[in-house]
Amino acid sequence: MTAMTATAAEPSWHRKPASRGARIARAIVAWVAAALVLVIVGFLVWANTYMEAERAPLDSVWADPAVSISDRGDSVVLAPTGEASGVGLVFVPGARVDAYAYLYKLSGVVAAAGVTVVVTKPILNLAFFDQRPLSTFTSQAPAVTDWYVGGHSLGGVRACQYATDPAVKGLVLLGSYCANDLSTTDLAVISLSGSEDGLSTPQKVSDARHLLPADATMTEIAGANHARFGDYGPQPGDGTATIGTSRMRDEVTAGLSGFWGGDD
Predict the structure, then answer these.
(1) So what's the pLDDT on residue 4?
(2) Is residue 152 domain-resident?
(3) Would you list the DSSP string of 213-229?
(4) Are 87 and 149 in contact (CB under 8 A)?
(5) How many CA atoms lie within 13 A of 122 on its CB side?
(6) One domain for residues 213 and 149
(7) 142 and 34, same structural domain?
(8) Phi-psi region of 73 (alpha: psi -120 to 50; beta: other; left: phi over 0)
(9) What's the rounded Cα separation, in Å, for the pair 216 and 223?
(10) How far apart are CA 116 and CA 105, in angstroms?
């Protein structure tokens, strides 16, 4: 009988201990992985802790017989109950702001000018993470013939990117400005800004003016701060508004109604 060759694993007491460098490397990898998990969890908590819509302005929209509200899951659609103009606006909220926070300010032009407004619900409440095509939202209102895009704050920056879509006729900026150059386009553009805006300041809006077409309508609303373009309470870093929310709605309604009323 021949002797059997040992194939069992080498006993642990025969193995060489890991070098100090290897132990340090493993510890660093474990620490980096743990830190990355904490960062991701923290970011997700932060992104989903959004600024909610104030109840009173929203209730007034629900009670308005001239406006219908429809939640489509990925967006909220404001539609006129009377005659529709055929104009539609895809509106992108500011970072970490509830889509419903814009319904009151935008409902005026729906009732007054028959405009249909689709307010998006960005992924993670941040417009830059939402890379869904514009058609995701325009499909919510198939009867609209002329589409515009718009947004507030960082949502406006995303709207400027959407504005390069050939299907878009124009751009609406509320307390916002573009980061991409649209100056050579034939887009119809209106920018409504606030004199007391501490985030999209008058200086920042002015500095980015060259990125818009020469005939863009630029209107600064006296007394408006950044948060007055929606209804979600105060925002860190903002200025102090001296205009009330109902008066602000009137200003936004007048500006947008005039913009579309004068458009062919």
Answers:
(1) 47
(2) yes
(3) -TT-EEEEETT--SGGG
(4) no
(5) 27
(6) yes
(7) no
(8) left
(9) 22
(10) 13
Could you tell me the pLDDT band of residue 167, with boundaries at 50, 70 and 90?
A: very high
CA dihedral 137, 140, 145, 149 (to 10 degrees): -30
Q: What sign for the dihedral angle of Cα 174, 250, 142, 59?
A: positive
Domain extent at residue 226:
52-261
Judgement on whether residues 32 and 152 belong to the same structural domain of the protein: no
Per mean pLDDT, which range of 12-26, 90-104, 139-153 is the poorest?
Answer: 12-26
Give pLDDT, residue 10: 53
Taking 80 as the threshold, does the pLDDT of residue 56 lie above it?
yes
Q: Does some domain include residue 10?
A: no
Residues 6+ away with beta carbon under 8 Å from 240: 196, 225
37 and 58, same domain (yes or no): no
Instruction: Clarify whether residues 81 and 115 are in a common domain.
Output: yes
Is residue 1 a part of any domain in this protein? no
Residue 193, strand partner residues = 220
For residue 202, the domain's CATH number is 3.40.50.1820
Residue ranges of E strands in 137-244 = 146-152, 168-174, 188-194, 217-221
Cα–Cα distance for residue pair 248/200, rounded to 1 Å: 17
State residue 28's pLDDT score: 73
Q: Kindly report the CA angle at 116 between 112 and 118, in degrees rounded to 5? A: 135
Tokens of 22: 């290897």
pTM of the model: 0.83
Q: Within the chain, how many helices (H) and strands (E) appear?
A: 7, 8
